[in-house]
Design goal:
Number of domains: 1
CATH topology: Rossmann fold
Shape: globular
Number of strands: 7
Strand content: 15-25%
Order of helices and strands: HHEEHEEHEHHEHE
Strand order of the largest sheet: 3-2-1-4-5-7-6
Radius of gyration: 26 Å
Amino acid sequence: MGYVFDFKDAGSYDAWFDQAKNRYCLDLETQLMMDLLSPEKGQRILDIGCGTGISLEPLVDKGLNLTGLDPSLYMLDQASKKFGNKVDLHRGAAEDLPFDDNEFDCALLFTSLEFTDRPAKAIEEACRVAKDTVIICVLNRYAPLNMIRRFKSFFVPNIYNHAHFFSIWELKQILSAILGNVPVKWKTTLQFPFACGRMALFIENNKLVQKSFFGTLIGMKIKPVPKFRTRPLTLKIKKPKAYNPATGMVTRMRH
């Protein structure tokens, strides 16, 4: 299951994004997610590791059927207060989703894969329940900002102590092992986390810049081959009925 956010984490999570600089980073990351997702009205979307609902906020009121799942009751409580009955919330682990095969059009992992014990299993489960696409957004191991975050976590305990940072190559290796050669589209964002403003936004939105290997957030769009969870079936074999021989003997009459 990995790291489960506690009461203290849930209380400070949204407050962290209230700061202008952090909100700027989140807005770029959310924009990348939305570009890859390209949601259409009526789609069934599952947010795996939805937390307090940060990644669900831009999807609400767009005519989508939204479902969120998280292992932390404290995070789900915050999400429930935000969305009410607009989002169907469940408690569960990414590695063992309580949903049927191909139940959703799209499955989303937005900065949640980093906190799982078995990321390959979590991706496999996402591909099982998603009929069309899987979107993965993870923190980039080679991004300058994430290197600073990792360095600071050695001295000041924070949530990054529990996170596994990924690279584009690592993600591709995991996907190849699970799915084989399937279509994968990727790009990154937040190349310049220490700058903001119109010029920075203009550069961040450049398609060539988004192919950098050093952006803070990696976004991947996967087209999985439909998967089905198989279970062994018990075969019931009926034994043929035993017929008793007829009593008596047939005699031939002589004329």
